[in-house]
Amino acid sequence: MGLCLFIYTVITSFKNDTLWNSRFLTINKDSSITYVPDEKGNIIPDFSNVGYHHGFSQIPNIKVVKIVNPLQGDAGKVIQQAIDEVAAIAPDKDGYRGAILLKKGSYLIAANISIQTGGIVLRGEGEDTKLIATGKGQRSLIKVSGQGKITELKNSRVKITDDYVPTGAKSFNITSAKALKKGDRIIVFRPGTDNWIHDLKMDQIIAREGTKQWTAKEYNLSYERQITAIEGNKVFIDNPIVMSMDKKYGGGEVFKYTYAGRLAENGIENMRFESEFISDTDEDHAWVAVEFDHIENGWVRNVSAYYFGNSCVSLRQGAKNITVTGSKCFDAKSIITGGRRYSFNNEGQQNLFINLETTEGRHDYVTGARVNGPNVFYNCKSRKTHADIGPHHRWASGTLYDNIDTDGEINVQDRGNWGSGHGWAGVTQVLWNCKASGAAVQNPWVSGKNYVIGLRGKQLKGRLDGKENGEWEGNDKTGLQPSSLYEAQLKARKN
């Protein structure tokens, strides 16, 4: 009996440790990747062009131009004054004004700190530089934000002529490319339509008090892209289509845009944030440690946040090409219900969250409503979770969850009437080589698929009956190659 058990254990171990490849793509000897399309031409998209300068540039170490030392009482005004002084410095050729170094010690902040000028970095000396949000009031301790919005250039809009542009495509045809050139920033616009909402069954959400059915005008989606080449009337773009565009659902359009007032080259790094609180369920204290909005090509690295009600880092809709790395969100203080404990929250485009850790969160690595990808969460850990990881509500498109390790769930599903009618949480959501207690991953009725490849954890039914399973492969099977899709795609792009 003992010998049989030994043989069985060896065989099982060998089986689990066997390397295997996904049916959706092949890594070639030269590190390039061949993707396997479905019957409509859809593929898993390339997620590698995300983060600070699309990953082409490493996060820089900006020269210190101002030093602040710890002081008694409220340090917020002194730090703000230093920021305003550096804001008056002319930027160098790369857009940097300089770094403000907060020396080791504790800094009490009664209100908040605001950075509204590009090229400014706020830097500490690690965990020994401690910023403490004192007193009452839900607020962001540090807010880095420009202003403005996506503004269409007049007379630049042209239609996409393809009947169907598949997920993963980096090119398409338009009526005329005469007014466009390589390097132009464009919006790839996918209109919301009544028949799309109906076929998605999001005008049929089983209602409860406060439930809102989806309406077409709320789902006009604008994806920021840059033209890499033009051949005749065929346009090539830097980042892929992450939601198929179908003529029967309005197809797509392209237009040039500006974003006046958007910041660039800002960073928050090497410090610890704390929020004062009076109990584990206190709601009247600092809510977010670091918030970014109306900014591109910035970063948050090597920070930790303790006792905030919502998040360590929250990237709002106007945040693009931000890298959040090497950071932690621990021991949130709030009641445990909706709208709280979104440890690392993303609402923007082309952002990278990498090497992160959380405890006591709800939605630890999460996207909000109508979040337009690609976006990536990679190599992130969560413990003592109170809810699930994944797209939270209302149609995020194009997110990679790569090597997420959680003791909770990762879900991509129709959330139905949860919240005010969240409905389908997302499309082109890819779980790659993740570990969880379980996952519910479903395909929406139209417009794309969701993928779960190499998950170690239970396959869950999900909240609602009658939903189609997503594209599952290699459940509870170790040895997936490549072990990281993001790293493989990044290597393929750079070779």
Brief digest:
The protein is mainly beta and 495 residues long. Helix content is 9%, strand content 40%.
Give an overview of the whole structure:
It is built from four helices and 40 strands. By secondary structure, it is mainly beta. It folds into two domains: 52-133 and 262-494, Pectate Lyase C-like (3 Solenoid); 151-258, Beta Barrel (Elongation Factor Tu (Ef-tu), domain 3). Strand 2 and strand 3 (33-35) form a beta hairpin. The radius of gyration is 23 Å and the shape is globular. The chain starts with a helix and ends with a helix.
Topology (elements, then pairings):
Elements: H1 2-17, E1 20-21, E2 25-27, E3 33-35, E4 64-68, H2 76-87, E5 98-102, E6 105-109, E7 113-115, E8 120-123, E9 129-133, E10 140-145, E11 151-152, E12 158-159, E13 164-165, E14 171-173, E15 185-190, H3 194-199, E16 221-231, E17 234-237, E18 245-246, E19 253-258, E20 263-264, E21 267-275, E22 288-293, E23 295-306, E24 311-315, E25 319-325, E26 328-330, E27 344-346, E28 352-359, E29 365-367, E30 372-383, E31 388-391, E32 396-406, E33 409-412, E34 426-432, E35 435-443, E36 451-453, E37 456-459, E38 468-469, E39 471-473, E40 480-481, H4 485-494
Parallel strand pairs: 1-40, 4-5, 5-8, 6-9, 7-10, 8-21, 9-21, 10-22, 20-23, 21-23, 22-24, 23-25, 23-26, 24-27, 25-28, 26-28, 27-29, 28-30, 29-31, 30-32, 31-33, 32-34, 33-35, 34-36, 35-37, 36-39
Antiparallel strand pairs: 2-3, 11-19, 12-19, 13-18, 14-17, 15-16, 15-19, 16-17, 35-38
Biased composition (Basic and acidic residues): 463-476
Region (Disordered): 463-495
InterPro entries: Pectin_lyase_fold/virulence (IPR011050)
